[in-house]
């Protein structure tokens, strides 16, 4: 269970460290490139966020690119996750009484460490800086090779059209006969289900 502070972090924390030294480190990493980074707060972005890797136009870019970053940040609910992460980090920060040890680390991981985690780390760091926190950002795997994943097989358009035409013809025969055959109906619906499963 995550411990939540009873204290509310002030809007501007810069007065807590007048020399402007770094007080938080936000890191991104890829789970497919080694062990996760140890941190006070860890965010797993593999499942909840849109993956730019699926778009060939974004696959070889990174989360520092504005188009990639917006693609990730436009995922429904992502802003709330960012706000909650920032709030938790600030709570951890103000709870530490001794400023010499007031260092909070945040790690964001995705599959390859190039897109989602990078975009999230940059956005979290930006939000923290706007609150007067000195932040350093590190992207461990941003320059690692892109991990290629096999594309899902998609039937050719012609084959798909022919399969649908055959099924529709059988359904037409059923309707025009006036005496539907239950076994044939089950076969038609099974074929539709199989075609849907193989396509989508």
From TrEMBL:
Domain RapZ C-terminal: 23-143
UniProt GO MF annotations: ATP binding
Protein source organism: Planobispora rosea
InterPro entries in the record: RapZ-like, RapZ_C
Protein's recorded name: RapZ C-terminal domain-containing protein
Coiled-coil intervals: none
Pfam families, sorted: PapZ_C
